[in-house]
Amino acid sequence: MRHIHIIGIGAGNPDHLTMEAVGAIAASDVFFLFDKGEDKSQLTDLRRHLIERHKAGAPYRLVWGESPQWASRESGYGAVVDDLNARKRLLTGDLVDAELKPGQSGAILVWGDPTLYDSTLRIMQAVCRERDDVDYSVIPGISSLQALVARHRIPFNAIGGGVTITPGRGLAALMSQRPETVAVMLDSRDAFQEACGADYVIHYGAYVGLPQEQLFAGPLDALAETIAAYRREARARHGWIMDSYILSRQLTA
């Protein structure tokens, strides 16, 4: 059999790595890295640092693949994601077939936690369905949302309350329900502005765990424009942004 470890590596701080993740890295022979371009080289560099640190001089190989790009979204978001994941599945399967030998273990290092808004598990499920000699395991990691609330030193939920987690594109539809606490990821269009005027507090974090980390906390109405301007500037300066935020009707800044 050939085995793949899907390893959550946390939100950016190398010390976020769990002991289980350290053991999985140490046990892996081959690491599959997917190049997303020069703009995101910092993310690749962190992965390489973690591998070098926890292999501790033991032999290993890095296998590189060029991550497929998003196609035109004219056909709709769901269709575009399905197409992207299909191309990732073909790429991953080809790399596993070519580079992972019988009895070896491979690893894919996933930002945050592999189970939350990441397609790696779905892709690996499909790869394994097509091959009877490959299986996989999942090592959880500290998610960006966990890192966010920790950096702000706040609880995730109000006492006895619930938390809704949504991508940015789903926030507008939720606002009519006046949710108590909403955690938002993958917001490409400043969706938090949809909640202005509804007396929410925002706890925002970008690049949490990385040297360029930036936090904002306070009444959403007072901070919405500041955060939107920061996001534009940060995206222009770094070429990418990784951020998340919590909107709450009860937590105080």
Describe the overall structure.
Its EC number is 2.1.1.152. It catalyses: precorrin-5 + S-adenosyl-L-methionine + H2O = precorrin-6A + acetate + S-adenosyl-L-homocysteine + 2 H(+). The protein has 253 residues and is α/β, with parallel strands linked by helices. It has two domains: 1-137, Tetrapyrrole methylase, N-terminal domain (Cobalt-precorrin-4 Transmethylase, domain 1), CATH 3.40.1010; 142-247, 2-Layer Sandwich (Methyltransferase, Cobalt-precorrin-4 Transmethylase, Domain 2), CATH 3.30.950.10. Helix content is 36%, strand content 23%. It contains seven helices and ten strands. It has a five-stranded parallel beta sheet with strand order 3-2-4-1-5, with helices on both faces. A five-stranded mixed beta sheet has the order 6-7-10-8-9, with helices on both faces. β2, α2 and β3 form a beta-alpha-beta unit. α3 (77-99) packs across α4 (120-129). It is globular and about 60 Å long. The model has no long low-confidence stretch (mean pLDDT 92).
